Amino acid sequence: MAQIERQRSNERRSVGERREQLVDAAIEVLAAEGLTGTTTRAITDQAGLALGAFHYAFESKDALLRAVLDRRAEEMETALTTATRDISSVQEVVDRLAEVAWTIVQGRRDLEIAIYELTLHALRNPELAEVAAGKYDRYVEVVRDAISGVVELPDDNAAEEIARFLVATFDGLILQDLVHGDPEAARRRLRMMSRAVTPVAQGNHADVVTPNGNASPA
């Protein structure tokens, strides 16, 4: 009886509500089963919807996976933006970003593995590749703005390059932690990275290489 009532409630939902419901379900299935196990049947079962309801909300499974990546990017962007508010030093920017990365990964390691898997899948799919790139671009924008707000750099290109370096370094340390499963070592390396990158971000370096390959004096 409860299952029938749940199905009736689902049927009364708008297309927008069903989309969010399916994204929620896809995230849980991805975390539990990985990309290969994330079928439309598994997603609709998790959501408590009939299989046919999927196509009222999304034109394809890839369209749903795009929405999952978008959701993840929005959540990370919000977390990074919140973490870097009201700060006064580069050290504080880097430390807070490290803490955000740590908290997110330790909170849902299964989901973080699935997001890496989904990102690699997106890079092999022309319809999704720009979503994967856009995800990182959003992170870089937040970090760039945070750094630019507390230190004077040679130019905008320098801020961009430092932000991309930071995001790439965080990403690598997160992946290393997922592989080795050594949280204490991961946290130690995050602290090491924080101390190492701060002088660079503060401009205490010989030069900053800009995207066109030229060196800008610090």
Describe the structure.
The chain has helices at 2-11, 15-33, 40-47, 54-57, 61-83, 90-107, 109-123, 129-148, 156-180, 183-201; strands spanning 207-209, 215-217. The chain is mainly α. It has two domains: 1-58, Arc Repressor Mutant, subunit A; 68-207, Tetracycline Repressor, domain 2 (Orthogonal Bundle), CATH 1.10.357.10. A two-stranded antiparallel ribbon has the order 1-2. Strand 1 (207-209) and strand 2 form a beta hairpin. It is elongated. The termini are far apart.
Q: Keywords for this structure?
A:
mainly alpha, two-stranded antiparallel ribbon, 10 helices, single chain, Arc Repressor Mutant, subunit A, 218 residues, Tetracycline Repressor, domain 2, 3% strand
Biggest sheet: strand arrangement? 1-2
CATH class category label of the largest domain: Mainly Alpha
Helix content: over 70%
Q: What fold name goes in the CATH topology slot of the largest domain?
A: Tetracycline Repressor, domain 2
How is this structure best summarized?
By secondary structure, the chain is an all-alpha fold.
